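thread from #wetlab-drylab

HS: before we spend reagent money on co-crystallization trials with PBG, can we at least see a predicted complex? here's what I'd submit
DV: go for it
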Amino acid sequence: MNQRPRRNRKSANVREMVAETNLKIEDLIYPLFIVDGSNKKLPISSMPNCFRWSLDLLLKEIETCGKLGINNFVLFPAVENHLKDKTASYGYDSKNFYLKAIHTIKNNFPEFTLMSDVAMDPYSIDGHDGLVINGEIDNDQSLPILCKMALAQAEAGIDIIGPSDMMDGRIGAIRETLDDNEFTSTSIMSYTAKYASAFYGPFRDALDSEPKFGDKKTYQMDPRNKSESLIEAELDELEGADILMIKPALSYLDVIQTIKKNSNLPISAYNVSGEYAMVHAAAEKGWLDYNQTFNEVLTSIKRAGADIILTYFAKDFARLKK
Ligand code: PBG
């Protein structure tokens, strides 16, 4: 035999030398949930070791994460029901605790990257990402609301805007709003190929943001489609996105690979709540080894072509590396 592939696997050092995928803590963005008030660290039953933090405790948590080498965070608000309305107006209200939190975190940790979520669902009584009119999600009337949310976040000091709503044309509309207001340095990471997925269940528990009627299939993508993700990618690129995201990650590795091959922009993938919950549930039962499994999950997402991974495993990955 001239070729014996096993020779390149014969020791840990050789395997390390020939490894094709190098997952680094710098590739990861850690999602964090924020609630109003103080001294709160509320558990999320379907997401072990994730919490809804009040700002005072969140600042300490971010400091801890920083010491572990995590520099990038995506922030989500858990909003009390009495603040929700049809038009998600609290989303850009100057009293909004989420916007205040962005401002405070940025002041305390200017070196860290903060990313936001732009969608109406945390603030909407309908629990949909766009504006509901006569039982339908109205695309074009949602755009000005999403733009107001994005502008308010930019004013609060966010580094990267994360539109997760899947309305058509929102990347262009948000880019124009930011530029018109001199936020030319504020980036947009577009949720480009966001699928209508069952894997968001635990996240909706965390934010109490379940749609109040129907589902999200008229705006989020059909899991059966891949070519369509290239249309979304092309549009987001033309409209001014800086980074393209695929979400969820694990059941969509082929989509990550396809978009990576077809775009010169950096590619990110969101390893979502349900993917996190699955590994925890199996590990709790003693059916899978937690550390090895999540490491393999993250490695596969990187190998498929994601430059950046949003993941609830970030802290455990950082601890494992230490
Ligand atoms: C809301 C939003 C969702 C997630 C991120 N932003 C849920 C949804 O679309 O219903 C899901 C993240 C996760 O499951 O970890 N626009």
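DV: Residues 117, 119, 121, 129, 164, 200, 203-204, 272-273 surround PBG (CB under 6 Å).
HS: ok that's useful, forwarding to the group
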